[in-house]
Amino acid sequence: MVTDSKTIPHRGIIVGNYCHDILLNNNLVIAETLGGAASFISTVLDALSLPFHLVSKVGPDFTHAALTTNHPPLVISTSQTTIFHAHFGSNHPDRILNRVGSCDPITPSEIPSGSRFEFGMAVGVGGEILPETLEKMLEICDIVFVDIQGLIRRFEDKDGRVNHVGLKESGFFHLLPKISFLKASEDEALFIDLEEVRKWCCVVVTHGKDGCEVFCKDGCLKVDPFQVCQVDPTGAGDCFLGGFAAGIVQGLDVYDAALLGNFFGSLAVAQVGPPSLDMNLVQMVKEEMNKRKVKDTPCPEKIDKLPVFRKPHDQDQFYASLVAAKDKIMYHIQENGWKSSPKLVDQSNVKAKPVINSVQQGPISSVVDK
């Protein structure tokens, strides 16, 4: 079983493997970074002081132990770390994503027994989330957030190219009534019947620079984005989900939580790799969140019955406060120099092109890399 180094009580549990993400431009490696949705979500939840237990697997070849000391993975001696190759270049500007190696899936026995969690997040990227594992999470968590990429991704036998199957064919569809929030990019949403799925659980569809929409049985919200200069889009969807989940768990209504998700997504695209978040500046955000609380803890049985599917009357005030916080964080980052991954081979190439890898939502091309 995976153990977490923190001794403070865990309010939540994150399930998903860390990865090695290899970025290639015209078949030349330009970067090797820590990947996996769990790595980005951890950054957001840590910044917001929301304690959680991590269940993640890697192989003995894992090269980012120094970056994951607060939430170490379980090292499987007989397996390897999940590896993604993200190809882009002049012949195919859209991402071509291949899983070239995979770690073992996470089994129900590796989810803590005898524990109860306020929230859970199923955030697989490489097929590591099994239906029975998600079912175990649904049994022990009051609220569960699920990223659909962990349910509908499939991988070609020949080269590991990423494809999608419909949600009904994924083996997870029967679990929808127990899921609280299902997050999908606008491209992934094509693989679900939105009108049917929203009858069973809340669906959050992200639209990149155009913000997001939240759908439930009886309502829909469109939530504004934050303007930002994009440096690297990697992990924006994961940081969005981390911010959204933190908002819901800490008592915000759905609109404000989605706005918080857009906020953290914008911080992700403005930097290379997991966002660097100054704790003093994030404190501004936490103070605003405390002002916006509508309840101490959410009630999972009543999520879609609460009057949350409308814009709060003072939502402009919250948006303005987040814009102010974002501007200060961006100024701080620029003053200290844009954050670079220690393994970036050519940083200028990454900034010049919209590199997208395994943890970022975006169109997955069906073109095979040549």
Helix count equals: 9
**Total number of distinct structural domains:** 1
Low-confidence stretches: 1-8, 338-370
In total, the number of strands is 16
- Please name the CATH topology: UDP-N-acetylmuramoyl-L-alanine:D-glutamate ligase
Overall average pLDDT: 83
* Percent range for β-strand residues: 15-25%
Kindly name the structural category: alpha/beta
CATH homologous superfamily label: Ribokinase
Elements, N to C (H/E): EEEHEEEEEEHEHEEEHEEEHHHHH
Topology:
Layout (H helix, E strand, L loop, with lengths): L11 E4 L3 E7 L2 E8 L1 H11 L4 E4 L1 E2 L15 E2 L6 E8 L2 E10 L15 E6 L8 H10 E7 L1 H4 E3 L6 E3 L16 E5 L8 H4 L4 E5 L5 E5 L2 E5 L12 H14 L4 H16 L9 H14 L22 H21 L11 H6 L18
Parallel strand pairs: 1-4, 1-9, 2-7, 5-6, 9-10, 10-13, 13-14
Antiparallel strand pairs: 2-3, 7-8, 11-12, 14-15, 15-16
Helix pairs in contact: 1-5, 5-6, 6-8, 7-8
Q: Could you explain the architecture of this structure?
A:
- The protein is built from nine helices and 16 strands.
- The chain is of the alpha/beta class and 370 residues long.
- Helix 5 (236-249) packs antiparallel against helix 6 and helix 7 (279-292) packs antiparallel against helix 8.
- It has a single domain, classed as Ribokinase (UDP-N-acetylmuramoyl-L-alanine:D-glutamate ligase), CATH 3.40.1190.20.
